[in-house]
Amino acid sequence: MRTRGEWPKRRHRSPVEGDGTASTPAVPGPTVLVVGTDDWAIDQAAEALADAGSPVLRCHEPGAPAFPCNALVEGRTCPLDIGFDVVATVRARAGGAPAQSEFGVVCGVRAGVPLVVAGLAADRPFGSWAAATVEQGGDLVSTCRAVAEQCAVDQAIATHHVPEGAHS
Q: Does this model's pTM top 0.85?
């Protein structure tokens, strides 16, 4: 895993509350916007994250075209309006340009949300914006959790105000 030293400020996500059932994790994982190059890769990543207790958001419904996204479809909600901790793109095939189904990366990075890029390493177009990368076969779930935790720590440090004269 490669991580970036500083995290941008971001909008906080809405709190996620469990329903109290045994299948609800005691501490939910970070909310993750999952996008990628192929629906099957997005589905696998979303399932792994959800199974680990992370709420998952998508820019379009499974099996639906990437455009128009949920922000533009009546009755649906843009993930930016809900809030999320990490945006993860799962690249099932190499390519030098973003796929239409990865446009949520641009929205998330623009909003200051840390990015995790997973999958095939060749020609990743988002490398300079990635907070962390996960090579093919790596642990996306743990990486998303670590990135969200580090971002929270960095934000707490950045917002901590030290009174004048308190420095030694």
A: no
